[in-house]
Amino acid sequence: MRRLLYILILLALTLSPVSARQKTHVIGFYNVENLFDTSHDDGKNDYEYLPEGSNKWTPEKYRKKLHNIAGTISKMAEANGQFHAILGLAEVENEHVLRDLVATKELAPAGFRHILVEGPDRRGVDVALLYRPDVFKVTGVKSIPFDFNSGIEFEFTPQEQKDFRTRDILRVCGTIDGEKFAVYVCHLPSRGGDKGGDLRCRGAEIVYNDAMALQKSQPGIKIIVMGDMNDDPTDESMTRYLHGREKISATTENDFFSPFLSMIKNGYGTLSYRGRWNLFDGIYVNRALAHPAKGTFGIQKIEKGRYYGKVFNADFLTNQSGPYKGTPFRTFSRGEFIGGYSDHYPTYIVIKK
């Protein structure tokens, strides 16, 4: 009976009005907040996420976390009439958790495949990509490390720069319906002590330089940059160094259209810290997607017909009572496991041919 139910769900999604057109696809990003398994990875500081660690991260808690994240992705599929074609993830420990995630009953019907390249982050969290191989045909994978080869004036001393470790940027190239795409998945350096703005500017600069070189070598390629930027779309890293533009009309070949820039100005957010909302979980597209050639994929308005981005802030992802009412329902609160989802809401865009 359960297997029959999964088949019926898959058929319902496959035959829905959106997916039936086969020319509309959902592309999104989700910081899944510390998706760790219960085993130690050599060389990584993951001890708090072990059964004997400070979080007492038992197999039961791990399974609860997996099904929460999978359920969120499945609910977005229900809302859109199709599973994501491409979904970037942040704060993923390793390939093992990705295999467990895509094998859950909620996500098995999607047939997701996954990509993760281990990076130098000391805690062992990386970015990753889930994709549907029936839509996105992968042609190349590149892991781009962080470096300090820039004209930016950094706060770190040369020794601190040498010792610094952060997540790599994941670049995945492929095709959708024969059109070339490149997707960058980022988790830029954190805001510890309200610092790191120079590091995030450098991270954005690294992505921008690589994307512009790729665009030059492959004219017409559709480029999507997504991730937990640890900065808002209005911050310098995104406007100056990634060249994020609020208006499609202002997006040149040397810019990225920033769908969530106007949304944050109108009160949208993906996480709340000390009573202040931020929208760190951005998605940016190049001119080829913002101004598509006739008959090719382009970004579409989706949120109330006004915005090109969507913050998936469903009620089940949100605290409904208590001191954190109205904010994301996370996994832990004040050191206590509360069985929530993530401290970030997912975001997505829709492309259509």
Topology:
Elements: H1 2-14, H2 17-21, E1 24-35, H3 59-80, E2 86-92, H4 95-102, E3 113-116, E4 126-131, E5 136-144, H5 158-163, E6 169-176, E7 179-187, H6 197-217, E8 222-228, H7 236-241, E9 244-245, E10 256-257, H8 261-265, E11 271-273, E12 276-278, E13 281-286, H9 287-290, E14 298-299, E15 310-311, E16 332-333, E17 336-337, E18 347-352
Parallel strand pairs: 1-2, 7-8, 9-10
Antiparallel strand pairs: 1-18, 2-4, 3-4, 5-6, 6-7, 8-13, 10-13, 11-12, 14-18, 15-18, 16-17
Helix pairs in contact: 3-4
Pairing-aware structural class of the strands and helices?
alpha+beta
Please identify, by name, the CATH architecture: 4-Layer Sandwich
Put simply, the count of helices is 9
Tell me the number of structural domains.
1
What series of H and E elements makes up the topology? HHEHEHEEEHEEHEHEEHEEEHEEEEE
Jot down its keywords.
single chain, 353 residues, alpha+beta, Deoxyribonuclease I, Chain A, seven-stranded mixed sheet, 9 helices, 25% helix
Structural description of this entry:
With 353 residues, the protein is an alpha+beta fold. The protein has a single domain (24-352), classed as Deoxyribonuclease I, Chain A (4-Layer Sandwich). It is 25% helix and 26% strand. Strands 1, 2, 3, 4, 14, 15 and 18 form a seven-stranded mixed beta sheet that branches. A seven-stranded mixed beta sheet has the order 5-6-7-8-13-10-9. A hairpin with a 2-residue loop joins strand 6 (169-176) and strand 7 (179-187). It is globular.
